[in-house]
């Protein structure tokens, strides 16, 4: 089971193209200027089964998937299992937003378990002073949009760029 605030189909702001966005409940980061402080308390979410979430994801035939929140990594074991099921059952790409830095995730055996199953990580806390409304797919310019498989191979964070 995963505590979920909301599932939004066909969003176009949480990564390229149409995406099914799974908004996790619970966030430990408490960024100043957070767009959704109600997301901080994990008990504000509703418990969803993996099967019910997968049904939603698969019903959006032409949409890829984004994990957002809250912070999905507060429930990293559950989101890792969800990512594995998406990998096994679909060809959809997975973006994951988190308030943790890529380096913090790599240094933690608990947090890093999700990395092999996601395509792109948008990392770091939201910083009000670095907010830029023109920065596509992230809130503040300190947040990096990281190509995870390439970063793992290169042993350092490599930024994601759209394929033309
Ligand atoms: S990581 Fe996101 S959800 Fe969590 S406090 Fe920061 S802006 Fe809000």
Oligomer: single chain
Strand-residue proportion: 15-25%
Q: Strand count, sense and closure of the main sheet? A: 7 strands, mixed
How widely separated are the two ends?
38 Å
Largest sheet, order of strands side by side? Answer: 3-1-2-4-5-6-7
Overall tally of structural domains: 1
Shape: globular
Query: Over the alpha carbons, how many angstroms does the gyration radius reach?
Result: 15 Å
Number of strands: 7
By CATH, the topology is TIM Barrel
CATH architecture identity: Alpha-Beta Barrel
The molecules bound to the chains, other than polymers, are:
iron/sulfur cluster
Give the class-level CATH name. Answer: Alpha Beta
Give the fraction of residues assigned to helices.
Answer: 10-25%
Query: Structural class, from secondary structure content?
Result: alpha/beta
Quick one: CATH superfamily?
Aldolase class I
Poorly predicted runs: none
Overall pLDDT confidence: 97
């Amino acid at each position: 089971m995963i505590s979920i605030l909301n599932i939004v189909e066909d969003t176009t702001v949480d990564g390229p193209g149409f995406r099914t966005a799974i908004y996790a409940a619970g966030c430990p980061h408490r960024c100043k200027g957070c767009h959704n402080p109600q997301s901080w308390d994990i008990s504000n979410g509703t418990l969803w089964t993996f099967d019910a979430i997968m049904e939603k994801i698969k019903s959006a035939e032409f949409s890829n998937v984004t994990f957002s929140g809250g912070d999905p990594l507060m429930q990293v074991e559950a989101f890792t299992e969800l990512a594995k099921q998406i990998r096994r059952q679909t060809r959809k790409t997975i973006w994951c937003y988190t308030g943790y830095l890529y380096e913090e995730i790599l240094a933690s055996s608990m947090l890093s378990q999700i990395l092999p199953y996601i395509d792109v990580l948008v990392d770091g806390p939201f910083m009000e002073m670095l907010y830029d409304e023109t920065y596509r797919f992230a809130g503040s310019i300190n947040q990096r949009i990281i190509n995870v498989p390439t970063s793992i191979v290169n042993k350092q964070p490599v930024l994601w760029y759209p394929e033309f």
